[in-house]
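Methods, example record. To illustrate the input and output format used throughout this study, we show the complete record for Putative copia-type protein. The sequence lines were provided to the predictor; the line carrying structure tokens was produced by it.
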Amino acid sequence: MHDPKDEHMNALKRIIRYVKGTLHLGLHLYPSSVADPVSYIDADWGGCPDTRRSTSG
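The corresponding predicted structure is encoded as:
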């Protein structure tokens, strides 16, 4: 970032505290008969046909 503000530093510190506090958590993957992962995404990467930018927030 070319012009970081205090709020950016505060956000970074919050992220670091979150990661530090959740090191014991993890994602455990086990072999199973399901071969295709499923994902859900809440994004509108093309709501505006002119700019291809999100229009949903």
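Annotations derived from this record:
The chain has a mean pLDDT of 80.
Residues 6-21 form the longest helix (16 residues).
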